[in-house]
Description:
By secondary structure, the protein is an alpha+beta fold. The chain has one domain (5-185): Mog1/PsbP, alpha/beta/alpha sandwich (Protein Transport Mog1p, Chain A, 3-Layer(aba) Sandwich), CATH 3.40.1000.10. Helix content is 18%, strand content 41%. It has four helices and twelve strands. Strands 3, 4, 5, 6, 7, 8, 9, 10 and 11 form a nine-stranded antiparallel beta sheet that branches. β3 and β4 form a beta hairpin. The protein is globular, with a radius of gyration of 16 Å.
Amino acid sequence: MSLTCKDAAVAWTAAALCMAAFALPATAQAQEQLYLEPPPGWEKAYDTRQGTAEIRQFVPEGQNLDDWSDMVVVQVMHGLSTMPPDLFLASVPGQLEKYCEEPRFGDIQKGLMAQQEAAFQIVQCPLNTLTGRGELSMFLVIKGQSNLYALQRAWQTPSYLGEDAPIPQAAMDAGIAYLRAAKLCSSLPCR
Length: 191
């Protein structure tokens, strides 16, 4: 069976986490809303609902799901607010190891983000066997009143087996700052 990069992106989404959309309402009743501006010059590359999850992926203009080096993914898992964010992240290794050679998992960091339970982790895949490339992802999972929100800032690079990920520290710092800018609001407008 031959897999396209879109298939790989969907597999990564299902296996790890993905990013949902911006100003995405969680439920009409709770009016809980995730707000995260896309980076300047980025556009939506993928938008779907899979069961109770809404998934949106964004890439810089000129990139697409078959040829990307930078990606933002937002995933809203409706009704999953009972799962602690760190437990959600703890499920990533079992899924990622199915298609990643020599995966590396940073420590899961737990804390509060705007008084919401949250967890953060950096995950490296030096060789994704579905794409033949390396990936590094930062995940931020936030537990809302009604839903669980998984945010991902990802980079795709040449394979880096046995080496450090070729992502400059300034890009890593900017990725962390970007994820921290996310807001989960219980009243509208959310900005």
